[in-house]
């Protein structure tokens, strides 16, 4: 698996690495089931061998792919990994452990190695309430919330994701899942309800070439405060976003886009366009379990010289870290 961020990080001086690590920053786009530390997932499988044996080998196969490092030919292959992960986190106990380990991975010092500082100062974790034979959606949510609430509100909060593959339920504020599934229209009422009740919206939008401008414009009509990826915006949607610079920000997940092959090279990444047009940006990881990345590595991609990174000056990188904190929903 290509380690975009790791290579960028390795190319930096010790001073630059320390600079990135010390920057106070926010992680705003991290999917719970996509960010479970691999060792935690392995431990859960060892503790519950019945999960692996009862799944016709699908869980064992999924775990093996994650252990070896994922190579994706296109973005849809990414979504095929989740049934295996979901089988492993299908009980309240396993979900609790996975949530605890995932939050710790971002917020606790030492989680990326002895003596290493915490990856970020503020975390907005997102997840899709999911029922299984062992728990209801409510239990799922309560289990995750129990862990999130162990932290102060200015440290860790939860975003509830709506999955495009599921029927709309009025619970929350992120739209995610296979980008071509479902119809954006079906979610508008839920989005409006969420907004009316004081929740802000973050929507995965225009993530693939196949997403139509119509789909994108429908999602923008819901007035999201943040956009996930926003890779393939066209003329009309671009101008809507640019006209809302004061109230909209884009969550940028560099390694995710490169590994899912929705963006070919870092030099061509749309982040440069957003930067030169002054739209607030938050650098995020997306799914650290699958992409084997970290927030520090994502920032290394900003600082490292081309072709490994974008070669941005420290001043800009520090400004982006500040921006990530400013566009958090805790403000
Ligand atoms: C769209 C994504 C995603 O919610 O079960 N997910 N949806 N685009 C992406 N970019 C590559 N990365 C993750 O976390 C896993 C779920 O998050 C969504 C998918 O629906 C995936 O099943 P939770 O905690």
UniProtKB/TrEMBL annotation:
Residues 170-329 form the Adenosine deaminase domain. The keyword Transmembrane does not apply. SUPFAM superfamilies: Metallo-dependent hydrolases. Keywords: Hydrolase, Metal-binding, Nucleotide metabolism, Zinc. Its cofactor is Zn(2+). Pfam families: A_deaminase (PF00962). GO terms for biological process: adenosine catabolic process; inosine biosynthetic process; nucleotide metabolic process. One of its GO terms (molecular function) is adenosine deaminase activity. It catalyses: N(6)-methyl-AMP + H2O + H(+) = IMP + methylamine. Belongs to the metallo-dependent hydrolases superfamily. Adenosine and AMP deaminases family. This is Adenosine deaminase domain-containing protein.
């Amino acid at each position: 698996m290509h380690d975009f961020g790791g290579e960028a990080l390795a190319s930096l001086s010790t001073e630059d690495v320390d600079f990135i690590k010390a920057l106070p920053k926010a992680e705003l786009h991290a999917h719970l089931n996509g960010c479970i530390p691999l060792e935690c997932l392995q431990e859960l499988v060892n503790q519950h061998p019945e999960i692996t044996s009862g799944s016709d080998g699908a869980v064992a196969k999924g775990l093996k792919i994650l252990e070896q490092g994922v190579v994706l030919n296109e973005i849809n292959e990414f979504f095929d990994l989740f049934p295996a992960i979901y089988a492993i986190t299908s009980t309240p106990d396993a979900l609790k452990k996975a949530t605890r380990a995932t939050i710790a991975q971002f917020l606790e010092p030492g989680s990326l190695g002895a003596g290493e500082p915490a990856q970020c100062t503020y975390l907005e974790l997102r997840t899709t309430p999911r029922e299984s034979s062992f728990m209801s959606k409510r239990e799922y949510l309560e289990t995750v919330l129990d862990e999130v609430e162990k932290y102060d509100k200015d440290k860790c909060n939860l975003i509830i994701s709506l999955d495009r593959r599921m029927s709309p339920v009025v619970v929350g504020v992120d739209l995610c899942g296979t980008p071509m599934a479902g119809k954006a229209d079906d979610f508008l009422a839920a989005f409006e309800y969420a907004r009316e009740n004081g929740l802000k919206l973050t929507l995965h939008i225009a993530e693939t070439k196949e997403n139509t401008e119509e789909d994108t414009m429908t999602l923008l009509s819901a007035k999201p405060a943040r956009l996930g990826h926003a890779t393939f915006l066209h003329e009309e949607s671009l101008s809507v976003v640019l006209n809302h610079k004061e109230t909209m920000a884009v969550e940028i997940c560099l390694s995710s886009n490169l590994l899912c092959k929705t963006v070919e090279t870092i030099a061509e990444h749309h982040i440069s366009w957003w930067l030169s047009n002054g739209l607030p940006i938050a650098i995020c990881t997306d799914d650290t379990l699958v992409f084997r990345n970290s927030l520090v590595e994502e920032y290394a991609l900003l600082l490292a010289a081309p072709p490994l990174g974008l070669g941005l000056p420290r001043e800009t990188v520090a400004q982006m870290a500040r921006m990530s904190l400013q566009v958090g929903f805790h403000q």
